[in-house]
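Lecture 7 notes: from sequence to structure.

We start with a single chain of 353 residues. Read the sequence below before looking at the structure.
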Amino acid sequence: MEAFLCQPGWLDVGCDRRSVVVCARAGTSLRSFGAERGWSIGLREVCGAVKEGLYQTSNKVRRAGLDALLGGTADDKTNASGDSVKALDVVANDVFVDALGRCESVNMIASEEEDDVVVKEDAPEDGYAVVFDPLDGSSNIAACIPTGTIFGVYKTTGSRPDQALQLGSNLVLAGYCLYSAATILVLSDGSGTFAFTLDSERGDFVLTHPNIKVPQSGSSYSVNDGRFHDWPTGLQRYITDIKNGQGRTGTKYDTKYICSLVADVHYVLFRGGIAMNPRAHLRLVYEGNPIAFIVENAGGAASTGVGRILEVEPTKPHHRLPIFVGSRLDIEELESYDDKGGVRQMHNPGYKY
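Now the structure, written as tokens:
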């Protein structure tokens, strides 16, 4: 909570969907994209604040080694989920708190790095709640493995904290930003999924991948195979079958695992296949719902192993659950193995991550 105390305008207190799809052209700036899609002025202001946070965080990530931000915090801090907090987590969180705090259309936020939903002082009744993981994959930053930011935006009908804990199907905007060889923003407003590349010279994101479509099936999977023997029988059988070419497609699947959620999902979004964390580790509010919204609006599927992620009602800000996302036919096949011994690992034998 300390991050908010020094930020003016924050007070700790504990759906519209467009049916008309506007043709988006490659080369369109993010600023123009929202206007062309008919977003409200308020939603465009929120997107502008998020864009500012992404731009600053991208710069912070690239300078992490130079600015001595590769390690943990001086006091070995952990967040509300019990994860070790890296110095860059704190910096990225502060960047988004500041950017969103200055946006008049935002009335509350929920961050993976904070204990509770935070409501803006004198928050308007009709505004937007922004939920985010400021720096996903930060444990990999010292090895220069790709990291990212994940966010979601909800329309609110009041200033109660539970307005930030809506069903994922109520999202009006969701996205992730991949910090890698290029800085790529992938987002959906409920009518398609689009990717923008940061043009540092223009200071804006430019549309480079209009209307992304996830292949209906792929030929790879992303999961930590080193934990195979801790998985339930159904998941073991599924992975064994697709590796050996005994699955639905008859193709022998390869492993493509980066251990960075945004990077693993990004690969699947363009190449197809399936990415997963079978145990209840990832957060529904900050990771599961935004990622599921993006993937589904690209024609893919996102499951808990037994049903849609977007239909799970959050019970608390840091609600955890298993996540399986990717090609629709691959997800359907994965779910069919739940009757063969289960695909969700509902216990943690001692993993740190």
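The chain is about 25% helix and 25% strand. Keep this in mind for problem set 3.
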